[in-house]
Amino acid sequence: MPELRKDPVINRWVIISTERAKRPHDFMLPKEEKKGGFCPFDYGNEHTTPPEIMAFRPADTEPNTPGWWIRVVPNKFPALDPSLEPERYGHGMYDAMKGFGAHEVVIETADHNTNMALMNLKQVEEIIWAYKHRYEALIKREGIKYVLIFKNHGSLAGASLEHPHSQIIATPIVPKRVHEELVGSREYYSFKERCVFCDMINQERLENARVVEINDDFISFEPFASRFPFETWIMPRRHVHSFKDITDSEIKGFAQILRNTLYKIYVGLDNPPYNFMLHTAPETGEGSEYYHWHLEIVPRLTKVAGFEWGSGFYINPTPPEEAAKFLREIKPGEQKLNKLKE
Amino acid sequence: MPELRKDPVINRWVIISTERAKRPHDFMLPKEEKKGGFCPFDYGNEHTTPPEIMAFRPADTEPNTPGWWIRVVPNKFPALDPSLEPERYGHGMYDAMKGFGAHEVVIETADHNTNMALMNLKQVEEIIWAYKHRYEALIKREGIKYVLIFKNHGSLAGASLEHPHSQIIATPIVPKRVHEELVGSREYYSFKERCVFCDMINQERLENARVVEINDDFISFEPFASRFPFETWIMPRRHVHSFKDITDSEIKGFAQILRNTLYKIYVGLDNPPYNFMLHTAPETGEGSEYYHWHLEIVPRLTKVAGFEWGSGFYINPTPPEEAAKFLREIKPGEQKLNKLKE
């Protein structure tokens, strides 16, 4: 049974996973990447994943058979388990709870060899539709407090399969980082009576030095205090605290800016590993005035060292102004695409 | 000029480093490790580092010549610069300050091919003496608020040179993680009127399930809410908030438990990359009742993925009880040493 445990000093929750359990000797095996072998996300292998939760597929096809273009399935090795009760208990001075939650995989395409940077916009839009559907379904569940949508691209960013996919984890707690953003943006609001994220958008537009791309509804930019080279945030330009309030037309704009930003990173930095993660307010109403949903993209170009782990502050060797200038100058079609790395 | 920049939402400071600046194309070069080449930390190459700040060396040798057994030098590519003023300024809505601080390297031995896990205790004791000397000197400087002592071992943990060394960074701010620990331990103290770290030591001794090693003055254990497989903390058993208050006899006990714990990790996990970092209270008197200095060791066995970055909470596939049992059973001399990895 997976267990959630809380650090007694800084109140950080950790999932002690048993489904994904690793014994000490597992860490000593040579870490080889499997390439070109069996892929459970390819057409014809649908029976090797848990049964699909939803899929975009022609009306005349059966669930768990080929023909789909997006497919959502439970993670075969889930970090959290929907069948548990969200029960809390003490362990001496420590706090823990059963590892209740959900863990799903969004298989973004049937094409094993592409990635989101190279997809057509329609496909990216539908991936966002899938995110929204699953977000809405999971956040309604009794005991679920937060739904995290994220993507690991490339094995150095933690992806264990190369077939394009994202993940969704529903948790019985609000994650620490989101809690910190809520507290910080509330403090700013109580001082300024304005949303700190809206203020950032205004300043970024005014200066333009860190902007990567902008369209009618979204802006993508390198944050002023970027932790990592080419860290890029995408924000809706109107004030809106929850991702679930994205409109149909905003989904088009979001797909466009997300695909274009990933394309610039893909071409400019030669298909680096990256993570992205969607930050939204919890569905308690909290944050409606002062929180602002956004997506954070972190290319994995540098190694995070002891200083960063230990201190929670970061050394970034690339000024965000320089990173933004570099990415801005990459225009779709103007640069030759590198072949996907084998 | 390096610059410190503050995230306007969660108040996290980031060093935008110019000395270590990387241009976009730098990230696309093949990342090869240099092995067997020139090492600036070897005997005879003392002139290739900035002049030494202190060294343990025979009285009849000159500074910056061979003969030393521990040497402390300024980092050739410092993240922070002692010659700047710690001036703060605004940049529109954002907060920044000049990259004032210090960045030093402790060359732990003249022997290029060893590591701390394999050193004799006397050598480790003297490394700790060097840490203490530099801590005391740096924390006294005008404008310095915190001194971070840490080590990156192995290139996957961020070490750019394989010669055994640690680093010291003195900063004009208290790092976010330490601030969080101060706030959390103060809250616990106001509720319980006890130090949360002392309570952890008591519970760990009572249960014994997560203890790795114990001696008269120190305990080493896997924390209940370990973020990473084989994350190991070392704590003084008496309540003491600041590392600088370590006594001469405690230095012996600290050297012993640190060397033995690193040895167990080295043998048991086949010389994995790791980071360690010393957490101590700032020298403001703050925390004297409720903070407790300690060292956190994090072997780098798993890849930190998008979920962790984005959420601030972690999935750990190895229960700490299992990790502790595995490490406890490794006794110095009982297991054959693996050859140092080439």
Helicity level of chain A = 10-25%
Q: Which strand order spans the largest sheet of chain A, edge to edge or round the barrel?
A: 3-4-7-9-8-13-14-12-11-10
The CATH architecture of the largest domain in chain A is: 2-Layer Sandwich
> What does the oligomeric state look like here?
homodimer
Outline the biggest β-sheet of chain A.
Answer: 10 strands, antiparallel
Q: What is the top-level CATH class of the largest domain in chain A?
A: Alpha Beta
Strand content of chain A: 15-25%
Question: In angstroms, what separates the terminal alpha carbons of chain A?
Answer: 37 Å
- CATH fold-type name of the largest domain in chain A: HIT family, subunit A
Helix and strand pattern of chain A: EEEEEEEHEEHHEEEHEEHEH
Radius of gyration of chain A: 20 Å
Q: Class by helix and strand content of chain A? A: alpha+beta
Number of helical segments with 4 or more residues of chain A: 6
Low-confidence stretches of chain A: 334-342
Biggest interface between chains: A-B, 96 and 96 residues
Q: What count of structural domains of chain A?
A: 2
Shape of chain A: globular
Record field, number of beta strands of chain A: 15
Please tell me the overall pLDDT of chain A.
90
What would you give as the CATH superfamily of the largest domain in chain A?
HIT-like
Task: Please describe the structure with a list of short key phrases separated by commas or semicolons.
2 domains; 342 residues; globular; disordered C terminus; 25% helix; 10-stranded antiparallel β-sheet; HIT family, subunit A; 6 helices; 4-stranded antiparallel β-sheet; 15 strands; homodimer; alpha+beta
